[in-house]
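Quick one, T. Sequence first:
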Amino acid sequence: MPNKVEMSRDDIKKVYGQGEEAVVALVENLLAQIDKLSKRIQKLEDQISKNSRNSGKPSSTDGLGKPAPKSLRQPSGKKPGGQAGHKGETLAMVSEPDYIEVHEALCCPQCESDLSQVEAGSYKARQVFDLPPVRIEVTEHRAEVKTCPQCGTRAEGEFPPGVSQPVQYGPRICAQAVYLHEYHFIPLERTTEIFIDFYGHAPSEGTVVNVSARVSEAVGPALVEIKEQLTRTPVVHLDETGLRVEGRLHWLHSVSTCDLTYYEIHPRRGRAAMDAIGLIPLLTQVAVHDDWQPYWHYTAIRHSLCNAHHLRRLRFLVERYVQAWAEEMSLLLLEMKAATDQARLTLLPLSTDQLTLFQTRYDTILDTGFSLNPILPPPSDQPKSRGRPKHTPPQNFLLHLRQRKPSVLAFLYDLAIPFDNNQAERDIRMVKLKQKISGTFRSENGARIFSRIRSYISTVRKNGLSVLDALVASLNGHPFLPSPSSLVPLPEQ
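Structure tokens:
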């Protein structure tokens, strides 16, 4: 029989002339081809229909035609702006200004009489907050050189710690360079321009690079403490994101909490990288993540899945496959979130009846979904294929929600576990911003320096301390060490 796609009208007439069985075979082949093409079209349309609102794709992939941002959060009913009871902040006058300038009233505006000798009865005051002119100060350190009058031995005074070169920059200007380049992602050339505009003097680009390397080594004790703290924290957040190093794809791995952040860059994304980094294998409590398969190899961890990802996938099924059960599941998850948020405010766990009702509704919605998307065994006459059988996207997600149910609903049973993995995504976001600005890292060492300094800076910020002061402290040999008892002001500089 001629190829189904290339058949001409004459070929079709010949098939009709061969009898009923030939016609039936032709129709069956055409139907099989239509079914195959329909599935392929559906798959391709699914791919182009995915965006940051209905899948795990980042918003940067949405392109110029991306949809208007739409949050998964429900309206609160509150008006925009400050809420009742919110303590506003504004520029307020100080009781003791640094300088006072008196502007005299010299003549009467009515009769033009001379008032220069008249004493003022009162004053109207206005205050201007501004910076004084800033200039770099140079301190010369002189070590005395003396000759002992008794034995003639030459004696020299000792320079302070850190003063090791004939000419060098001090810790504050070095910290500011790292602050601008590593914290605010300002490129090297523009960092030097800022110093010229602010101070009339600029360290070279090479100096900024060298100082960043010094800070990377100086924060080593803090990174050791961060890793140790993370292994003992009840709930941690895991994530990873791709970035370019020397033109090749690498992966930045993140382990974090609301107080701690640890980054490390590795050429691999999966288990080999996690084992090499050596932090995730040491975790023994709860890890919140986005269902990246290698995480499941670590069986000592209690796994909790990000439900923000689930809500986006459910939205995709509603938009592309018109799955009513997916809409119901979204509403149920949001209702569970609202209940746990309220329970945290009252410091009371959900009651047994609440938990039972939520779980029953969850199972009922899944049963409805499976009834609408039944998973049938393959026909007996069809040859067995290797690997797992193929399912439709609704079937795949239904299976996921059933098989991973304890991890999907972990937040419901333990109020210490959050509903989503937003903490990790927020910690990753700044790294993505760095890549947008710089595009790539020129060396693996530069990427390593960046990840170490960002781990330190992020942890400092989370603990409410000044990043600039923390960088100065690290250069002076006293990096901030996070611990329950160390949340105190940094040492005097």
